[in-house]
Amino acid sequence: MTAGLTTKKRVRGGVGESPQRIDGIPKVTGNFAYASDLYATGMLWGATLRSPHPHARIVKLDTSPALAIGGVVTVLTQDDVPGRDGFGMHVPDQPVFAYGECNYWGEPIAVVVASDLPTAKLGVEAIDIEYELLEPLTDMEEADRLDSQTRRMKIRRGDLTVSGEVVAEGYYEVGQQDQAPLGNEAGLAIPDGEGGVDLFAVSQWVHSDHMQIFPCLDLEPEQVRCHPVGMGGAFGAREDVSMHIHLCLAALRTGRPVKMVYDRAESFVGHVHRHPARMWYRHEADRSGKLVKVEARVILDGGAYESSSNAVIANAAYFAVGPYKCDNVSVDAVVVRTNNPPAGAMRGFGGVQTAYAHEAQMDLLGAEVGLEPLQIRRINALGSGDQMNTSGQLIEGPLPTTELIDELAAMPLAGPLDSTDPRHLPGGTGLTTDPRHVRRGIGYGVTIKNLAFSEAFDDYTDVRIVLTPMGVEVHTAACEVGQGMVTVIQQLAREVLQIEQVAVVWADTSEIGSAGSTSASRQSQMTGGATYQCAVELRDQILSEYGGDELTGDGIWKDGQLVVTLAEVCALRPPTHELRYRHPETFVTDENGQGSPHPAWAVAAHRAVVDVDPELGLIKVVQIDAVHDVGRLLNPVAALGQVEGGTAQGIGLATLEELVVVDGVIKNANFTDYLLPTFLDMPHVEVRWVEEPERWGPLGAKGIGEPPTISSGPAVAAAIRDAVGRHLHRVPVLPQHIVGV
Amino acid sequence: MEITRPRSISEALDARAEDPGADLLAGGTDLMVEVNFGHRKPNHVIALRKVEELAQIQDNRIGAGVTWARLEHSRHRALAELARTIGSPQIRAAGTIGGNIGTASPAGDGLPWLAAMDAEIEVASRDRGTRRIPWNEFFTGVKQTALEPDEVILAAVLPDDVPENQFFAKIGQRTAMVISTVAAVVARDNGGRVRVGLASVAPTPIRATRAEALIADNPDPSETVLDEFARAVSEEVSPITDHRSTEAYRRHAAGVLARRLLERCLAS
Amino acid sequence: MIVTFTVNGESRVANVAGDESLLTVLREQLGLPGSKNACEQGECGSCSVIMDGALVTSCLVMAADCEGSDVTTVEGIGNDRELNAIQQALLDHGAVQCGFCTPGFVVAATHLFDYNPHPTSDEIKEALSGNICRCTGYGAILRGLEELAEGSA
């Protein structure tokens, strides 16, 4: 590698700054094109017929009444799928359309395509369909007993005959959370007139969608092109295919562009949800509080189809103990198949559920041995050089759990209750609570999460960088879902190439290789890492070619003199470099879950201060203090945005959000009764960063997307327990649980 | 769909008389929720938003078209308090007290106040003129009222002797934009008599009359009597368990809320 | 039916078929997709507009009822060349992530600052309690607007 970066004034907008995002102006002026805003001349609309039963046999399906409606162009069912009849993140177990049998409430059975959306919806209502009801399997413990599962995991490590003098046992439940991104599912498919189709639909991973779509259409891969589009958030809800295959079929069948947009009620059934969980734990420790053995049994309800459940249960199992040293661990974890709505990826991905359990357990242990919550965690803290408690994997990169705990302990506590205004009290403007009714509680959540994909998954990111006279182009198929990866890519390219003008070009599946999923907190490290590495190699190539020692926006310099302008460098053709970036190799574990399944981890430590009105069970989260293990802070404002946003979702699961599913039917598929945190529900969030660079990734940066969601909820739950002195075992914690009626 | 845009009350009454099946549209905060999800498909809508006559506040008469945003500044303390909690700022700017009365949801936030104030609902029809219906005769069941198909709600009318000493509280799982789990209004007059209005604990808004009688006998209640009062309220309500809350919690919370509100009245 | 009303200062004509909302008409007929359809129940604020001086959710306004009304959408507030102070503040503070809630916040916050140029933090939070954001946790939005509130009149 040639000479490092120079004495010249560094270009603006590099690493460590928080430059304005390039899509910011369109977003604040209402001009940004989301998938739901896309339009094509001659466009038709699609609407979906969905199963009103969690389990039923279709005994009659007659689409002719729909076809008879003026304006209805076609109706698609499974009979219209020319290729493979199913799709799925891991296995293609979900049919494109339900046929014969419906396995969950809301499962798509047909799509009506018409000249406008109201007509398409009329068509849906007109379809003549009859069902024979079947008994739905809806209880996850019963499913476990019946061995209706998509993956069972067993972790056995160390000597399980040992015992500790101090024992804490607990049973925990985590309700079903929904990602609820504000941007509903939407997409537009445009046939190319040559038998192929271009798809513009919400996604977290266009190449994964592509791999699932073209086999169903019985087309060659190059005949289907999936394009990244503007999206209103994801949080896991866009990782799976939803309307994608339906749209492509409709466009190919009609020869016209077809658009679909799910409204909020349909969105709730149109994507996968977080897995609800039941967990049984036994922690044994010695008198000093050091963990001796941990045994856990975990059931996650995966719903009707597998989606990414195989990986979610793995995370739940590998992180069942948390960031604590323990050499004797037994975990039995299973993700079951039921007739409940399918579960899949949601921010935290299995780590969220077991975090509630292990953090509650640590508090119980601490109480038994007379240690404060942070003390019991500190004496057990896992660090670099230790072995992962579940898999036994050697922790080779940084894992500053102790530093995080110490940093958190040093953060000043929020001030006393400000009773001057009802908005500062539990119950808020509902005026339920006077200051004398309030008890304050403090709770902690210290957690660990893998970064990027695991268990030998071939996790890579392709990037192409082109140098033009106008500046740099970074080509990627990575899906920007709102998190700000687009800015980080620019910053990294600027940092290396010292050219301020950086355009991020969203490429479709035919133009570039996969960038992998926007999930698992991986894009900063993977697409960011690819960008950085690719830029370094491109720069080095150019400098070497021209004998220069420095590259800037003006051109190539040697010994302080500009020797070639950028325009001259690009005269023949723009220098281009492509790179496929991989993280360190990971491995499948053995039959006892032992091995090296993860490429890196991040830890997080949160403290929650919560005021509670115990008589009414109302709460107000006053403050969250958070310390995050970020490796290297690339963009402080964006990182803070991830912590605050992730914390809001953690608070949501802890106190507000639950999909109420009764006998397989979602009862609150709307924003009136699925409660998201509002401005008045959010506390102040105070954040500190610990930067111990990771071994790989751009400049040692670690992903930040998921850790705040995993740590915040358990901290809030613990704070509520602290305030009321009751062992609350379920989240979301509801007023009736706090009161005990 | 047909729309009629009356410019006065009498035009509105004409329209309703001509087509008793027509839907009344004020702020749209209830009707449009049903329309947007296809649960209601009106054939004919009578739009009342711009009928200024309906949106007057005079002394003890609050026009049906008055929005919650305006009522946040009401001189009636508990009404101002409850207005502030309805929906969101956007909902309050559009939603009206008349709409709240007409929808007659068991959780309607304005309704326990009307109950506590012993309000009457003034309605009118082209053919039979105006009449006033006491609140407890107006609200007949879950989303059911005594309003005839050809009638329009004109106003909420209060008696002359409405107590100034009145407080409101509402429990919801979230601090904003939430349908109440329990809501209550307690008012205390100069003679020490109290009125306890409650919502979300019965098919209609109710008054906890037995609890009120307890305080009538004990106008300067001790802690023990306040405990009894809370218990009496808990026993008088008939809440249900639904996806928002449980019967047991609502029963418990109704008693606690009523007691706290009474304590505020006593401290005033 | 034909409905004539003013949108962003211009007289517009909509052909309303039935009971569709103002939001639907803005997005599908009038070429103004800036207002968003995240819930269509009045529970998220992403469709907020200012109508006849009041901040309302356009999903709950029946388009047929807009005859003669005056509506301002996000497209009528600032533009690519000259953002209003709210838009600039949101951008400067990283308050825009996916941006789906942003038009609603721009409209609601513009309305707030029009009648209260120096709101307290609590007033900001309450005035915007009808606008849901799923990405930011509201922190950056608050910081941007607090700084604006402290600024000169």
Sum up the structure in keywords:
heterotrimer; A: 741 residues; alpha+beta; Aldehyde Oxidoreductase, domain 4; Aldehyde Oxidoreductase, domain 3; 3 domains; six-stranded mixed beta sheet; 17 helices; 31 strands; 25% helix; disordered N terminus; B: 268 residues; five-stranded antiparallel beta sheet; four-stranded antiparallel beta sheet; 11 helices; 14 strands; 36% helix; 23% strand; globular
Secondary structure elements and their pairing?
The complex is a heterotrimer of chains A (741), B (268) and C (153).
Chain A: H1 24-29, E1 44-50, E2 56-62, H2 64-67, E3 72-76, E4 86-87, E5 94-95, E6 101-102, E7 108-114, H3 117-126, E8 128-133, H4 140-145, E9 149-157, E10 166-174, E11 186-191, E12 197-201, H5 206-217, E13 224-227, H6 244-254, E14 258-261, H7 264-270, E15 277-285, E16 291-301, H8 309-318, E17 329-336, H9 351-369, H10 373-380, H11 401-410, E18 439-450, E19 460-468, E20 471-476, H12 485-497, E21 502-506, H13 523-546, E22 550-551, E23 555-558, E24 561-565, H14 566-569, E25 576-582, E26 601-613, E27 618-629, H15 636-655, E28 661-662, E29 665-666, E30 684-690, H16 707-724, E31 730-731, H17 735-739
Parallel strand pairs in A: 1-14, 10-31, 12-13, 16-17, 20-21, 27-30
Antiparallel strand pairs in A: 1-7, 2-6, 2-8, 3-7, 4-5, 9-17, 10-15, 11-12, 11-14, 15-16, 18-26, 19-20, 19-25, 22-23, 23-24, 26-27, 28-29
Helix pairs in contact in A: 5-6, 8-9, 9-10, 9-16, 12-13, 15-16
Chain B: E1 2-4, H1 9-18, E2 23-25, H2 31-36, E3 44-47, E4 57-58, E5 61-63, H3 68-71, H4 77-85, H5 89-94, H6 97-103, H7 111-116, E6 120-125, E7 129-134, H8 135-138, E8 139-141, E9 144-145, E10 151-157, E11 165-171, E12 182-188, E13 194-199, E14 206-207, H9 209-217, H10 223-236, H11 247-267
Parallel strand pairs in B: 1-3, 2-3
Antiparallel strand pairs in B: 4-5, 5-10, 6-7, 6-10, 8-9, 11-12, 12-13, 13-14
Chain C: E1 2-7, E2 10-15, H1 22-28, E3 48-51, E4 54-57, E5 70-72, H2 85-92, H3 102-115, H4 121-127, H5 139-150
Parallel strand pairs in C: 1-5
Antiparallel strand pairs in C: 1-2, 3-4, 3-5
Helix pairs in contact in C: 2-5
